[in-house]
Amino acid sequence: MGGAAAAPAAAGASLAAARAGVPAADDGDVREQVVSLYQKQKKIYPRAVSGWFATWRWGLVWATQLLFYGLPWLEWNARQAVLFDLGARRFYIFGLVLYPQDFIYLTGLLIVSAYALFLFTAVAGRLWCGYACPQTVYTEMFMWVERKLEGDRNRRMKLDAAPWSLEKMARKGGKQLAWVALGLWTGFTFVGYFTPIKELAASVLSFGLGPWETFWTLFYGFATYGNAGYMREQVCKYMCPYARFQSAMFDRDTLVISYDTERGEPRGKGSGRGRKTDLQAANLGHCIDCGLCVEVCPTGIDIRKGLQYECIGCAACVDVCNGVMDKMNYPRGLVRYDTLNGMQKHLSRGQELTRVFRPRVLVYTAILGIIVVGLGISMAMRSPFKVDVVRDRGALARIVEDGWIENVYRLQIMNTTEAVQRYRIVASGLPSMATDLKTEVVVEPAQARWVPVAVRVPPEAAAQAGPGSHRLEFAIERVDSAADAHASHTLVEKSTFMVPR
User: Fold this and answer.
1) 315's torsion region: left (phi>0), alpha (psi -120 to 50) or beta?
2) Can you give the pLDDT at residue 22?
3) pLDDT at position 66 over 60
4) Tens digit of each residue's pLDDT (9 = 90 or more) over 344-401
C-alpha cells in the first residue's frame, strides 16, 4: 500500500519539476524535459531594395492602384462607368449592362482567370504573387509608409527595441494614422463599386452613411490594415491556398527564383577575398555570404536553400545580389530567374524558350483559347434585351365577356442597351389567340419594366383545343428606333395557356 501511494506522489513531483523547467530523474535515471511545440513568430524587417525588378514592382503598384482608386470616378453616359448596383440588380461595365440572368458571363470570366493563372504559373511561376497580387501591392504601400516614418530596417529594429519616448510615440502614432487613413480610403473605394461613389462621398461628408455601407467600408478597411500592416508574409505563407497547390503546376521548366550553387559555393567572405582575388585558388565561390538576400526577402527565407513554397517570386533578392556582384566585379545572375533544367543543364535562353511549348502549357493554352473565343462569341451574339414570363398566380384561367377564355401573365422586359427601346408583343399557340396590348411597350435605357399581358382565345378555339394546358409562345420584337439603328431583334419565350374544364 505504501508503494502504491508513493507512485502518484513521485509522478506528481516529476510533473511539477517538469513544469518548473527542472529535469526530474526516476529509478532508471531517465530525465524528463518539457519542450515547447510552439515558437513565437519572429518579426521580419525587410530591407529596402532598388533595382530593375523593384522598379517593375513599383510600376505595377502605381498601375493597379490608379486603376482601383480611379475607376469608380470615371463617368460613362452620365453614370458611373463601372458600377455593380446590387439594389437595382444591374452591373454596369462601361457600355455593357448586365442583369442577374447574365451570371454565366461572370462564371466564364472566373474560369478564364483561373486558366490564365494556371498557364502563367506553369510558364513563369509566381510572378503574379510578386508583382500584382493585392496582398503584395498593399504590403509594399504600407511598408513604404513605415520606412518614411520609422526608417529602414536597422532603424526600425532599434526603434522597436528602444523604450517608449515622445519620438517613438510620434513615429509609431503617425504610422498608425497613415495606415488607418489608407485602409479607410481603400474600404471607401471598394464600397464605391457597389454604391455610386459620388453619392457615397456625399453621405460620408454629411454623416449620413447607411449601415451596410458603414459595415463594408470598415470591414474592408480593417482587412487591408491588418493584412498589409501586420500579417504581411503570414498571409502568403499560411492563409493563401495558392502557395499550397502551386507545386501541382510547377515542373522543371517553370521559371523560378534560383540560386546558382555552382557559382556561389563555397560561400563566405574569406580572409583574403577582394575584387581581384583568384577565387579558384582561394577555394571561394561568388557568394560572399553577406546575408542581404535574406534581409530583403518579404517572407524571410534564404533563397540559397533552394526553391521554397514561401517564395513569392518578387526578385528582391535578385536586385540586391546583382548590386553586390557589381561591387565585387563579379558577373550578375548568381541569384536570378531561371528554370531548374536550365540551371542544371546550363541551357541558353533560346533553349529555355523552346521548352516553354511543352504539353502542359499547350493544353492550358488550348483550353484557355477555346473558352475566351466562346465567351467572346457569346458576348457578340448577346441579345439587346431579355424577357421573363411569369403567370398570374391569382387565377389560372377565367371566362370573360362573350365566353372568351383569358389567362393573365406578367412579362419583365429588361433593356440591356443605353437607349430608349420600343417592343411589340405577339402571342401564339392556339387559333385566333390575341392580347390586350394596343400599343408598343416603351422601356427606358438600361431599365426593366413589368408589363401585364392578358391573352384570350375565343370559345370555339378553346373547345377545339380541349381543357388542360396548351403550349403558348410570346414573341417580343424590338422595333427599330432613331436612337438605335441596329436591326430589329425578336425573342421567343414559352409558357402555357390553361383552358378550364
Assistant:
1) left
2) 46
3) yes
4) 899 888 888 889 999 989 999 999 999 999 999 988 888 888 999 998 877 788 888 8
Whether residue 332 sits in one domain with residue 193: no
Q: What DSSP string describes 425-471?
A: EEEESSTT-EES--S-EEE-TT-EEEEEEEEEE-HHHHHHH-SEEEE
**Residue 360 belongs to a domain:** no
Do residues 298 and 416 share a domain? no
- Which residue bears the cell 365577356? 401
Distance CA 71, CA 84 (A): 13
- DSSP letters along 339-389, please? -HHHHHHT--HHHHHHTTS-HHHHHHHHHHHHHHHHHHHHHHT--SEEEEE
Residue 5: exposure state from Cβ atoms within 10 A (0-12, 13-18, ≥19): exposed
pTM: 0.80
The mean of the pLDDT values for the chain is 87
CATH assignment at residue 424: 2.60.40.10
The answer to whether 444 and 476 are in contact (CB under 8 A) is no
Between 54 and 31, the higher pLDDT residue? 54
Q: Which domain holds residue 183?
A: 52-98+133-246
How many whole angstroms separate alpha carbon 151 and alpha carbon 143? 10
Edge to edge, the sheet with strand 96-98 lists 82-85, 90-93, 96-98
- The phi, psi pair for 434, rounded to 5°, reads -145, 160
C-alpha cell of residue 350: 533560346
Per the CB < 8 A criterion, the answer to whether 175 and 150 are in contact is yes
The answer to whether residues 294 and 300 touch, using CB atoms and an 8 Å cutoff, is yes
Q: Are 259 and 307 in a shared domain?
A: yes
Rounded Cα distance, 414 and 443, in Å: 8
Cell numbers 480611379: residue: 70
299 and 335 inside one domain: yes
